[in-house]
Amino acid sequence: MTEATKNLSKEKLAEIAPPPMAMLAELTHRCPLACPYCSNPLELKQASQELSTEEWISAFQQAANMGVLHLHLSGGEPASRRDLVELTKAAVDCGLYTNLITSGIGINEARLEELANAGLDHVQLSLQGVDHEKADLVAGYKGGLDRKLQLAEWVHKTGIPLTVNAVCHRSNMDDVPAMIELAQRLGARRLEVATVQFHGWAIKNRTQLMPTKEQVLATTETVEQARKDLEGKLVIDYVPADYYATHPKACMGGWARIGLNIDPTGLVLPCHAAETIPHLKFENVRNTSLHDIWYHSDTFNAFRGTDWMQEPCKSCDRKLVDFGGCRCQAMAIAGDATATDPACHRSPLKSKMLELASEQASIEDGFIYRGR
Fold first, then answer.
1. 347-358 pLDDT, tens digit each
2. What is the chain's Cα-based Rg?
3. Non-local CB neighbours of 125 within 8 Å, separated by 6+ positions
4. Which of 8, 134, 207, 221 has the fewest Cβ atoms nearer than 10 Å?
5. What value does the mean pLDDT take over residues 271-296?
6. Which of 167, 74, 86 is nearest to 123 (CA)?
7. What is the per-residue pLDDT for 11?
8. Is the bond preceding 76 in cis, omega lying within 30 degrees of 0?
9. Strand partners, 72
10. Using CA atoms, how far apart are residues 297 and 283, in angstroms rounded to an integer?
11. Quick check: 73 and 103 in contact, CB under 8 A?
């Protein structure tokens, strides 16, 4: 714990960081799919280690008391938890807006109805493609696309808002126009065109997943045009390819500024991939309150503000726009979590990153699946 922050007033704590707005609850790492871009850690947490129903509900209550508004129920596949309906109802009772992030596998119509009756506010459904053979190949699960399309139909019947999350990479990025059309047919209110982020298991498949620069430029143009054409009908979020970017993204809106994650065992993380930074030590909600972790832990304060920054970030006029970019990406490419995100054109490693992207985008390998 950071000694200097322990006795600060509520007002002073707010100067360090505003209260979190969102929390990602990774209920489990169990998942029926074997996606080669999975962002979960290389070492998955076992079911026997997962937080109990009561422990998760306590975490939800703490989050709500801190000011969290949005709760994302994720995994793995959250439907692998038998208590998913109970957890959803408890979160709703805490006043949290609940978003279920699902592969669509493991939820039948009756269970979806139970979730709707529990007060579930939103469903985010992942799609690996629009072509059955290709989508099932990416997911490593036969018949997966059919199951997803069926769930989308049931969600539409309940009236729960639907977001389609189209995870894009070299194998399916040319299908983005068809993904946009499919999202409209499914009655989605929002579409996330999300280029794979190379963390976790995705690093093992970078040669097969890395899009070409031509694909990235075409996709960006497609998304920009679709946003204009579908304004007021479909909201399109776009996560572009970091490796080809000019400026880095404000990852997570800046380190520990907007949201937090809890993994299946109760470890509290500033972002999904934070465990890839080896010197950080994470506290557990089983032993320490979310309030103390958010405001007082060394890990959550590690990259807040600008004092930690090196040049060129330290003197950059965008340092309060992108906050130096992604710390995990800096760790992965530069070997230093305090370095400028190599996605930035001012990083001395930008040329290396572009060369890596170009080289890997030209290699044809087969997917390496989890557990295969």
1. 999 999 999 899
2. 20
3. 102, 103, 104, 148, 151, 152, 155, 162, 163, 164, 165
4. 221
5. 95
6. 74
7. 54
8. yes
9. 24, 99
10. 8
11. no
Q: CB under 8 Å to 269, separation ≥6 — which residues?
A: 260, 261, 262, 263, 275, 282
Q: What gap in Å lies between CA 210 and CA 264, rounded to an integer?
A: 29
Contacts 24+ apart (CB under 8 A), 322-326: 322/247, 322/248, 322/249, 322/250, 323/250, 323/251, 323/254, 323/255, 323/257, 324/248, 325/248, 325/249, 325/250, 325/251, 326/242, 326/248, 326/249, 326/251
CA 44, CA 94: separation in Å to the nearest integer? 29
**Rounded to an integer, what distance in angstroms lies between the CA atom of residue 88 and that of residue 4?**
37
Token output for 316: 């950059």
Question: Which residues contact residue 351 at a Cβ distance below 8 angstroms, ignoring those fewer than 6 apart?
Answer: none
pTM for the model stands at 0.93
Instruction: Give Cβ neighbours of residue 1 (< 8 Å, ≥ 6 apart).
Output: 292, 296, 297, 298
What is the C-alpha separation between 103 and 292, in angstroms, rounded? 33
pLDDT single digits (tens) 108-148: 999 999 999 999 999 999 999 999 999 999 999 999 999 99
Under 8 Å between Cβ of 265 and 284:
yes
**Which pair of tokens denotes residue 153?**
């139909």
